[in-house]
BBS7 protein
Amino acid sequence: MDLSLARVDYLQVGVAAQKTMRLLPASGRKATQKVVVGDQDGVVTCFGIKKGEAVPVFKTLPGQKIARLELGGALNTPQEKIFVAIGSEVRGFTKRGKQFLSFETNLTESIKAMHISGADLFLCASYIYNHYCDCKDQHYYLSGDKINDVLCLPVDKVNCITPVLACQDRILRVLQGSDLLYEVEVPGPPTVLALNNGNGGDSGEEIVYGTSDGKLGLTQITGSKPIPKWEIGNEKKRGGILCIDSFDILGDGVKELLVGRDDGVLEIYSFESADDPALRYDHALSESIVSVQGGCVGKDGYDEILAATYSGWLTGLTTEPVHREGGSGEELKLSQEMQSKISSLRSELEHLQMKVLQEREKYQQSSQSSTAVSSVPAFSVNDKFILNKDDASYSLILEVQTAIDNVLVQSDVPIDLLDVDKNSAVVSFSSCDSEPNSNFLLATYRCQANTTRLELKVRSIEGQYGTLQAYVTPRIQPKTCQVHQYQIKPLSLHQRTHSIDHDRPMNTLMLKGQFSFAEIHSWVVFCLPEVPEKTPAGESVTFYFQNTFLGTQLESTYRKGEGCFKSDNISTISILKDVLSKEATKRKINLNISYDIDEESVRHTLKLIHPKLEYQQLLAKKVHLIDALRELQVHEGNVDFLLPKYRSILEEADQLLEEYKRQPAHLERLYGMITDLFIDKFKFKGTNVKTKVPLLLEILDGCDQDGLIAFFEAA
């Protein structure tokens, strides 16, 4: 059965956060459902659809921004009470809009995630989880990393309260009371949790998770251990997952999985075989989807998927056919319906244009008066700066509630800007002086009309750290700009991992000194990405990392007065030694630094780099030959006389050029890493070998692995 869905835009509210839109249960079997949505202006809006128009049921007054919206009610009854998380408070409304609850929690931070099950309320701030029953404090847990979402297995199925926390360090933490029952490792930082099938499956123990790098998985949370069921990678390089729901949109009696992503793609996965879900349908919206629900909204008898986007648009994908089949009377009726809708929209548009003109005149008059005060219009920017494991680059995603005019990107460290397929903005580079101002990059992205989301990709160089700044200017009057800063860390291409290979040859760096646990933790946060800012509980901590570019690894273990860092890459140890010494000197702390260098690790790192080097050199050679081969093709008219390897270059020319363009400085980066490795190896021996670098570069051009290793050992 082919799925055909028609898009309908219903209504726009204020900027919306993740998981802030729900559908109230229908009153009859085929009746339409009411939509309830909370926005960052603090307004809860409930509306239904009649004859294609949004009809309000209730609307609350503005206030603090709404972080989450959930439905609740007594177990095994329709879940039609509306609960919203605002700051550290939870408010409850009936389906008619009457407020019946205002519960001020004892949380010192704002609520980030919420789940409701009967009389049980589960709340999470950044690192703190709290469980309340009938608004009385029951359990508390302090997480090791930021909590992104919370869920509880259905009590009526599993007969006990089992909360699950989705944490930034790629772990689902399963709790029992105030204690950790066990941890579930997942392939990326989990951003959203949902019960499989909406009820946890037959056992009630099945949880679907989505990650910030776009992966999707199902795990069964049993009383003693997790059982992974399936996992879907992000082959198409789509955005991170923000929302998940289960709904039978195909009408085949099996609920499909609805997935909303931060690049605006809405996906439907069906379960054709009992095991893995298959992608059945996708639809691209222009901005991130923060909530998704399946139900009957626009017209009774027609199911649809409702999505809420970042800027507050509520968009439906309905099974109702756009063109109805029928006689001329039916068509006439439809055209009259459409004509009345068009005329009402026209009058609304004229009214808005008049209002804009009046307000503009009023602003002009007030700005020219002697008592004029300049007002800067406020606007929301949703930004992410995340490391991609696949190509060792950072994605900078900027999303604005209104159209973007331009974005100026400035960096005080050398970085490469990479090509992004989805990016339609025009980029222009300005020359900049790197010497006096440490200004290495100045680029302007001019966006096309109605662009609200811009994605950039940058690749940094390890050991060079500083700040990347984005100046975002939207298309609003008077002109205003927001500056957002992102730290490029010394070991910026390292990513947290669950475990490392302990059999590799490792170099060790040991630190001892009069520093506290919090101080050394702050240094590690400064050096490495994905480390929680909060000092971990306990006396010591161990983190594992992997270099996304080379595949080398790092183990860092530290406590008060002592730190131990192990890596199979000497350059990683060298960068850590320099940066940690500098940070300690700033705080006037004496460090006793010792190191143990394993000579075998250099050979091991070179063997890791060499296949990448060989591939990039071959790619560069092929690209340089393309123009000459094409000229030959034009002159000769046919290329049958060429060797097969040259013919294949011509056949694949477009792909080769595309790949080369996507990562322009890849080869230079590899040369730089090998040069750093060479200098760092001898730096630990107290020898300066910078004069031998030109000779090393000659050997690199020859691309001989054994010759390269011999040069490193003989120097």
About this structure: The chain has a mean pLDDT of 87. The longest helix spans residues 328-368. The longest strand covers residues 466-474.
